[in-house]
Amino acid sequence: MNEFIYLDNGATSYPKPEEVYTYMDQFYRRLGVNPGRSGYDICIEAGEVVENTRKTLTNFFNGTDPNRLCFSYNSTDALNLFINGMLEKGDHAITTTIEHNSVLRPLYHLWKYSGIEVDYVPFDDKGFVDPDDFKKCFKANTKLVVVNHASNVIGTIQPIKEIGKLCRENGIAFAVDASQSAGKIPVDMEEQYLDIIAFTGHKSLLGPTGIGGLYVREGVEVRHTRAGGTGVRSAVKTHLDEYPYRLEYGTPNTLGIAGLLAGVQWVEKQGLQHLHRHEMKLTTKLRDGLKQIEGVTLYCQDDLIDHISVLLFNVDGLEALNTGTLLDVDYNIASRTGLHCAPLVHDQLGTTEIHGAVRCGVGPFNTEEHINAAVEAVAEIAEMQKKRR
């Protein structure tokens, strides 16, 4: 059996740093109680881990107030919280065709059932949106702009600073889906004119699944869409207005928060620039190798400037699912196939009718040997398909 090669880091990072496994195990054995709900020592200590993670992530995103860093299940949960908590009938929102369903579906539901307007800015043939296209869509009732910072399908990094500046000048809230970018490239509240960041812990922040969150800039308010326990001021009949309780409900995923803290600390220790350079070196090697294979089509990979380590391809004449199955069964290589929860991207690429494409996501623990093996495997698959034609 060939060595297992994991190239699905766009879905979730794997493996995690050893420090994450160790810290989570030790934390849950020693401090696996409900944090901050009572006055005994380990309860207080568990609560301190939660607050330390809040402060660490606030600094990581260059925020100003740790209380406005609110935890959620994942970025989808965070996106739903503020999209549904900021838009109401008569409002107008702008997003892009490069979005994940975690943005597209909440907006579609609000359009269909609540009477909001939505405009979708398309990307160009290289995979980037034009900031001026957003300005053309601005209306008097435009309330929110939401943009996927880095595409989970083609890896392009969108010009969020330029978009954010336009939104700030026009008094429109600007939110980014940082699911793929957080932990790979800088996500900076101040420098990039961001009002809201939605993030997940299990991708490039190298934490576990089931934890994520959002940071909400001061002056930007999100309505309650839920209500429940907060562990404080229990006699108040309505859900609390102050942050972070405003957007947190019930017992938090304390173990997930602890793992996220360990993951972020590992990322900070390695350095974003170092990690990104390593991943893009391997992604470039993969792109260059696949580009030489007859019968392989690459999408938005002409150059890798302003890209993260995600690459999309197809083998001519093969369904993406079949290519992925061959990589898995015959070569022990994990990839992701299909529409990647981003159907409008595939509509623009023209891959919807052929049921999507194959995505490779390179992570911090991949090696040149992994990339060589993947290129060789795709070359053999393409040659086998060529002989069948």
Task: Describe this protein with a few key phrases.
389 residues; alpha/beta; Aspartate Aminotransferase, domain 1; 2 domains; seven-stranded mixed sheet; 11 helices; 13 strands; 40% helix; 15% strand
> In oligomeric terms, what are we looking at?
single chain
Query: Helix and strand succession?
Result: EHHEHEHEHEHEEEHHEEHEEHEH
The number of distinct helices, counting runs of at least 4 residues, comes to 11
What class do helices, strands and sheet pairing give? alpha/beta
Helix proportion of residues, in percent?
25-40%
Strand content: 5-15%
Main sheet makeup: 7 strands, mixed
Mean pLDDT: 96
* Cα separation of the termini: 29 Å
CATH architecture of the largest domain: 3-Layer(aba) Sandwich
Summarize the structure in short.
This protein has 11 helices and 13 strands. It is an alpha/beta fold.
What secondary-structure arrangement, pairings included, does this model have?
Elements (H helix, E strand, L loop, with lengths): L4 E2 L11 H14 L9 H20 L8 E4 L2 H12 L5 E5 L4 H14 L2 E5 L9 H7 L4 E7 L11 H10 L3 E5 L18 E5 L11 E5 L37 H17 L1 H20 L4 E3 L11 E6 L4 H12 L1 E2 L1 E3 L4 H7 L7 E5 L6 H21 L1
Parallel strand pairs: 1-11, 3-4, 3-5, 5-6, 6-7
Antiparallel strand pairs: 2-8, 7-8, 9-10, 10-13, 12-13
Helix pairs in contact: 1-7, 2-7, 3-4, 5-6, 8-11, 9-11
